[in-house]
Write a structure and sequence with these properties.
It is built from twelve helices and 16 strands. The chain is α/β, with parallel strands linked by helices. A hairpin with a 5-residue loop joins strand 8 (151-152) and strand 9. The structure holds zinc ion (ZN).
Length: 385
């Protein structure tokens, strides 16, 4: 076993204290010592370092427990900012967050054609524009983190985005060359699962399923993300559900789950030859509500496939809870119960599976992406102090 060097222990203690400051919002030196188990002298020394370097600030006096009132400490959230990108298959969403992972600004550009180069240049243009508008801060842009709706390997290289046909794309290196800051690239399902895990730390066995333009998933087991040997353990949208399918999936196979269960395929089925086609999931939800027969038929088929796919995953993962994230279900939350009714688990002794709608919604992957960049920034800084 590798022995920790003194400087490693210091860096670890600093990070532990910094994490407390991020989690607790406002905390005193004595409380930090109590929570972390570090002695008061160590806490005081590290807090001084963090104050001197502008990572934290002293705020108002706290409540006294007998002696003099303690000075409270809080994270200096505007000491820098990060860019989080959701590289969707129809549009690219670019957001700015502060160091407390609060959204400060955002913009969106459509994905045009299938050329990566053209879309990469537009992405860089959007990031430059957002960066130019930020007020000056001590650390400025601390990192860029990208959520990708496709297969990303453990080194952060995009291996395949089926819908866009982009293969072996090292977006991480290209963005680093352009902006000269740390860059992180990961699958959107994994990032959303990390964000949901932070929101719900009590659930150690969790499946996070996003039914959007494509199907994405993130798997948490024993409280940790399940990535698999090469990093694509969560590519569940390409499990084959129909071996008789004659139309190819975007990935090249036939009969993948995603062919029947994405917002795009649902809209397509509901709009085929329709007199009043829907332009968005909200418009489609309205047609379903007022009893449009074509929309309802498309929904029934969609729910059949969704329930079958979820049931298959339950038999692989046996999660305590499934968190569903979808514009369709946000517009029609009563459908969650409908899915639960269709999930049949005859050999498990379970009635059904607990499913909740995500509270993070469309921001789940972006929140997870920003968290990775922010944690990376603090981790590097704590090592270098
Ligand atoms: Zn496929």
């Amino acid at each position: 076993m590798k022995l920790l060097q003194t400087k490693d222990i210091r860096a670890r203690n600093r990070m532990q204290i910094m994490q407390q400051l991020i989690q607790c919002k406002e905390v005193s030196r004595a409380e930090i010592a109590e929570i972390t188990g570090l002695n008061k002298a160590t806490v005081s020394t590290i807090v001084k370092e963090l104050l001197d370097n502008g990572f934290i600030v002293e705020t108002a006096m706290g409540v006294s427990t007998g002696g003099r009132k303690p000075i409270m400490l809080t994270q200096q959230a505007d000491a820098g900012y990060c860019i989080a990108v959701d590289l969707n298959v129809t549009h690219i969403q670019v957001t700015v967050t502060d160091l407390a992972n609060r959204f400060c600004a955002e913009s969106s550009v459509p994905v045009k054609g299938e050329s990566f180069k053209q879309n990469f240049q537009r992405l860089c243009g959007e990031i430059h524009q957002l960066v130019e508008k930020r007020p000056p801060s001590r650390y400025g842009l601390i990192g860029i983190s990208v959520a990708v709706r496709g297969v990303v390997d453990l080194d952060g290289v995009i291996r395949f985005i089926p819908k866009l046909k982009w293969r072996d794309t090292d977006l991480k290196t290209l963005l680093h060359q352009e902006f000269q800051v740390p860059v992180y690239v990961d699958n959107d399902g994994d990032l959303a699962a990390m964000a949901e895990r932070r929101e719900n730390p009590g659930w150690d066995e969790m499946l996070v399923l996003s039914v959007d333009d494509v199907l994405s998933a993130g798997l948490v087991s024993h409280g940790k993300l399940v990535r698999g040997y090469l990093g694509f353990a969560n590519a569940v949208g390409h499990h084959i559900l129909n071996c008789k399918e004659t139309r190819p999936c975007n990935c090249g196979k036939y009969g993948c789950w995603e062919q029947y269960c994405s917002c795009l395929t649902l809209l397509e089925a509901a709009n085929r030859g329709a007199e009043h086609p829907s332009g968005s999931m909200e418009e489609l939800a309205e047609r379903i509500r007022i009893g449009d027969s074509q929309a309802q038929q498309a929904l029934r088929e969609f729910l059949d496939y969704l329930s079958i796919g979820i049931t298959n995953l339950i038999f692989v993962l046996n999660s305590e809870v499934i968190i569903l994230n979808s514009r369709l279900f946000s517009a029609l939350p009563e459908l969650v119960e409908e899915v639960q009714r269709r999930i049949i688990l005859p050999i498990t002794g379970l009635g059904t599976q607990t499913i909740y709608l995500s509270k993070l919604g469309q921001r789940a992957a972006l929140t997870g992406a920003a968290a990775v960049a922010i944690e990376g920034f603090y981790s590097n800084c704590m090592e270098q102090l």
